[in-house]
């Protein structure tokens, strides 16, 4: 969808929908929000709805950062220590590699 | 250019000419002679149809000529790789605490070939060689513990090991087993008698290196001394040999070995991973070692009424069936296992008439245990079944035990009777048993003696019975203290080691009937065992002289198990659907993981049925197991005039009982009391050799490829962005209507 031809009110509703949707454990919606509306929020000349769009984009970016940190930490810990967790590690895994602990 | 490719080219040219000719001529259909326009169109259509059909036929013919007329494809893969035909890997086995055996990477281990000349040459492999990782080729004389441990420690530079097994046994004895077999699951624990635990008194297997129980993280394969090995040595000589002090140049000869094992860590882990339900791709990674025990009794026992049998007193005659070696599925086990159970089979045959004409008061139960190498799988299972009332008799029914251990090598015709010193203090039944053994051996060519000092029992199935009850018993062996078997549980423990030799120029059938010296010696042992069993069961001494083992029978059984199982006698004893189990090679006694009884188990069952049972006049449909007897239909021999075999029904008391360690039924995978051995599963086991290029050349090729890709991308981008300049023609394009 090309945001050039979308009226500003619709841009605001879209941004809000993606922002609110991200709270349902969907951090990719926040990622899309940030990438898509970045130009609109920070690089276009000012228009009425831009302040709210800026707020949503900033909050989406914050949420995204939080998710990225949490996921990276968990993934690093899991990949590093799964072998040592023995039974718990096996029950947490979907695919257990063959032949290596 | 070789003949094959020129033939292909010629065929292709002929085909093209043929097709071209025919399609250019079109098709002449006689009906298209009509001149009118509509019909001409139809004729033209008809000729198109005709032409396309003919074209199709021609293409089919072409395909036939090119591919099916024996020219074949000349694939690039065949030009690069030479596959190894005979590859025997070492596989991974796991128990409650350890994993043993070998492992390779999922995509095989590639290493530059190096034929090891001596132990000092290891320095090239481990330190000074310039092109690691190396794949070391060892002669069997160099396959020692010190070399293998050094390779194991330097395993970042070692990609694998290939051992060339000779055709003849080495002169030096060597055993890959541990020096104290089954030390944790026997009867001598710290509770029973700490002075005798852990082979403190006698080290049973002094030549044991323990290699079979080490863990290696590179694959180890065994190769025979045949054409493939010559190819490998030639490849090494041509490419890898450093001549006159200069380093060998790329391309070098390399070998790739695949033996990726799925299971890891220990039995508890792999059984847990077998059972995980919600993973995306549930896969079995290991299986417990299991097979079947064979047992029979002289007086039939009601097999459906399990548990204690009132008034039934049984003398248990035990022997061991299985063996192992360092490599997977090679286990000739001649002295370790076969000598013992063949003597017991011959004794059972010798007792057939006596026990039927003058049955002794006690019953005699012959038991052949499988899986004894791996912490007494078979005997621990039978004791467990007896304790849980899941077997035809109970532990209280057992009067005494006589076990036949390794008896094939008895020098100076002496047999040694081992008994447990701890229980000997308490009972006198042991003394009677030994006296009976000595009286049974009188008048024969073999002498039986006790070791003469307080020594624990050697590793034997009897130890598992002692763990449960203090039953009197004796183990007959041919060694006074340490094993005389210098190839215990090794791939060299074969017919040659037992000195089973036949005069040259005998046909297989003549070899089957020829009585070797080993067979004669084993017959003496069998006679002693049979006579002892008869008196121990309460039979009359007067009948002893008539109980004699048959040397013809013994030599045939030895031939069948140690030289070639596909012989005329074995073929008569088994049903027709088992004939494919017989091979032209010695039988393999490794316990394995199959749910069905293995080949040696079935052979022993049918042999025992034949030697202790009798023929009954029953048709094949009625020949099935009953409560008291087992009925087996066998294919028999062909009468002299025809080629059809005449089958018959054999009635006997020979049955199978499951030999799976109780740890797996109880789900106690970390059990210290029972065997917890499992064998890992794997996907492919293969090996191949090829020439490998230097790393720099590979990187250069990759770099050039990437460079070409980037250049072409850039060129395309430049051309597309400047397209209007590059492709503008001076004039307007003509108006084309489509």
What does this entry show, briefly?
Chain B: InterPro entries: Ncstrn_small (IPR041084), Nicastrin (IPR008710). With 101 residues, chain A is an all-alpha fold. Helix content of chain A is 72%, strand content 0%.
Keywords:
heterodimer, A: 101 residues, mainly alpha, 4 helices, 72% helix, 0% strand, B: 738 residues, alpha/beta, eight-stranded mixed β-sheet, 17% strand
Walk me through the structure.
The complex is a heterodimer of chains A (101) and B (738). Chain A has helices at residues 8-21, 27-43, 50-85, 87-92. The mean pLDDT of chain A is 90. Chain A is elongated and about 60 Å long. Chain A is an all-alpha fold and 101 residues long. Helix content of chain A is 72%, strand content 0%. Chain B is an alpha/beta fold. Chain B contains 20 helices and 24 strands. Residues 29-37 of chain B have low confidence and may be disordered. Chain B: It comes from Cyclopterus lumpus (Lumpsucker).
Shape call of chain B: globular
Task: List the uncertain runs of chain B.
Answer: 29-37
The chain-level structural class of chain B is alpha/beta
Query: How many helical elements of chain B?
Result: 20
Q: Low-confidence stretches of chain A at least 5 residues in length (pLDDT < 50)?
A: none
| Main sheet summary of chain B | 8 strands, mixed
Task: Characterize the overall form of chain A.
Answer: elongated
Strand content of chain A: under 5%
Share of helical residues of chain A: over 70%
User: What's the gyration radius of chain B in Å?
Assistant: 35 Å
Keywords (chain A): Membrane, Notch signaling pathway, Transmembrane, Transmembrane helix
Pfam families (chain A): PEN-2
InterPro entries (chain A): Gamma_Secretase_Asp_P_PEN2 (IPR019379)
Subcellular location (chain A): Golgi apparatus, Golgi stack membrane
């Amino acid at each position: 969808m090309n945001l050039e031809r979308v009226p500003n009110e619709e841009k605001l509703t879209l941004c809000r929908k993606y922002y609110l949707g991200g709270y349902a454990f969907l951090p990719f919606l926040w990622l899309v929000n940030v990438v898509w509306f970045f130009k609109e929020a920070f690089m276009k000349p000012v228009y009425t709805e831009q302040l709210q769009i800026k707020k949503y984009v900033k909050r989406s970016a914050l949420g995204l950062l939080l998710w990225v940190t949490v996921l990276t930490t968990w993934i690093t810990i899991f990949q590093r220590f799964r072998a040592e967790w023995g039974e718990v590690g096996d029950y947490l895994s979907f695919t257990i590699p063959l032949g290596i602990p | 250019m070789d003949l094959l490719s020129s033939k292909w080219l010629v065929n292709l040219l002929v085909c093209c000419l043929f097709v071209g000719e025919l399609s250019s001529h079109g098709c002449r259909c006689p009906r298209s002679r009509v001149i009118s326009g509509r019909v001409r169109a139809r004729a033209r259509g008809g000729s198109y149809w005709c032409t396309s059909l003919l074209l199709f036929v021609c293409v089919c013919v072409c395909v036939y000529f090119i591919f099916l007329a024996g020219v074949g494809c000349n694939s690039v893969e065949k030009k690069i790789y030479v596959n190894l035909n005979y590859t025997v890997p070492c596989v991974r086995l796991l128990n409650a605490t350890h994993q043993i055996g070998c492992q390779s990477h999922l995509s095989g281990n590639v290493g530059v070939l190096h034929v090891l000349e001596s132990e000092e040459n290891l320095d090239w492999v481990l330190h000074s060689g310039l092109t690691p990782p190396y794949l070391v080729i060892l002669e069997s004389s160099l396959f020692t513990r010190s070399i293998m441990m050094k390779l194991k420690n330097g395993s970042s530079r070692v990609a694998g090991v290939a051992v060339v097994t000779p055709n003849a046994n080495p002169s030096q004895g060597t055993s890959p087993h541990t020096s104290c077999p089954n030390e944790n699951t026997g009867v001598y624990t710290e509770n029973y008698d700490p002075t005798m635990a852990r082979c403190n008194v006698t080290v049973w297997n002094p030549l044991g290196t323990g290699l079979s129980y080490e863990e290696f993280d590179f694959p180890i394969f065994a190769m025979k001394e045949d054409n493939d090995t010559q190819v490998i040595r030639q490849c090494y000589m041509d490419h890898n040999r450093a001549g006159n002090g200069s380093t060998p140049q790329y391309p070098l000869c390399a070998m790739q070995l695949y033996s990726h094992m799925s299971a890891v860590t220990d039995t508890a882990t792999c059984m847990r991973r077998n059972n995980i339900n919600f993973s995306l791709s549930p896969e079995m990674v290991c299986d417990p070692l299991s097979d079947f025990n064979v047992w029979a009794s002289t007086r039939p026992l009601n097999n459906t009424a399990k548990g204690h049998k009132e008034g039934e007193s049984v003398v248990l005659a035990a022997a061991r069936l299985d063996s192992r070696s360092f490599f997977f599925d090679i286990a000739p086990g001649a002295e370790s296992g076969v000598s013992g159970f063949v003597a017991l089979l011959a004794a059972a045959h010798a007792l057939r008439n006596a026990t039927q004409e003058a049955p002794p008061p006690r019953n005699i139960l012959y038991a052949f245990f499988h899986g004894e190498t791996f912490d007494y799988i078979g005997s621990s299972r039978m004791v467990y079944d007896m304790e849980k009332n899941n077997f035809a008799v109970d532990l209280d029914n057992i009067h005494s035990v006589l076990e036949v251990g390794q008896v094939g090598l008895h020098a100076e015709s002496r047999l040694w009777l081992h008994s447990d010193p701890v229980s000997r203090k308490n009972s006198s039944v042991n003394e009677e048993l030994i006296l009976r053994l000595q009286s049974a051996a009188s008048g024969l060519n073999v002498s039986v003696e006790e070791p003469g000092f307080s020594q624990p029992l050697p590793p034997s199935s009897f130890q598992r019975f002692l763990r449960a009850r203090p039953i009197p018993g004796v183990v007959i062996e041919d060694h006074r203290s340490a094993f005389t078997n210098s190839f215990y549980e090794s791939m060299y423990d074969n017919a040659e080691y037992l000195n089973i030799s036949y005069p040259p120029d005998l046909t297989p059938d003549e070899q089957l009937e020829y009585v070797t010296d080993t067979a004669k010696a084993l017959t003496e042992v069998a006679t002693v065992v049979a006579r002892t069993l008869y008196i121990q069961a309460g039979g009359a001494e007067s009948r002893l002289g008539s109980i004699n083992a048959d040397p013809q029978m013994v030599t045939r059984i030895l031939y069948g198990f140690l030289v070639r199982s596909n012989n005329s006698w074995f073929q008569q004893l088994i049903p027709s659907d088992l004939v494919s189990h017989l091979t032209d090679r010695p039988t393999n006694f490794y316990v394995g993981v199959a749910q069905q009884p293995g080949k040696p188990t079935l052979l022993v069952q049918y042999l025992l049925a034949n030697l202790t049972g009798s023929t009954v006049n029953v048709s094949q449909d009625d020949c099935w197991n009953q409560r008291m007897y087992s009925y087996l239909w066998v294919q028999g021999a062909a009468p002299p005039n025809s080629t059809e075999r005449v089958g018959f029904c054999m009635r006997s008391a020979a049955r199978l009982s499951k030999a799976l360690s109780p740890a797996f039924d109880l789900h106690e995978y970390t059990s210290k009391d029972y065997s917890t051995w499992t064998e890992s599963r794997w996907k492919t086991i293969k090996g191949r050799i090829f020439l490998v290029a230097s790393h720099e050349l590979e990187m250069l090729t990759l770099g050039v490829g990437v460079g070409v890709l980037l250049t072409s991308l850039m060129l395309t981008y430049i051309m597309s962005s400047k397209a209007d300049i590059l492709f503008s023609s001076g004039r307007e394009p003509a108006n084309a209507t489509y």
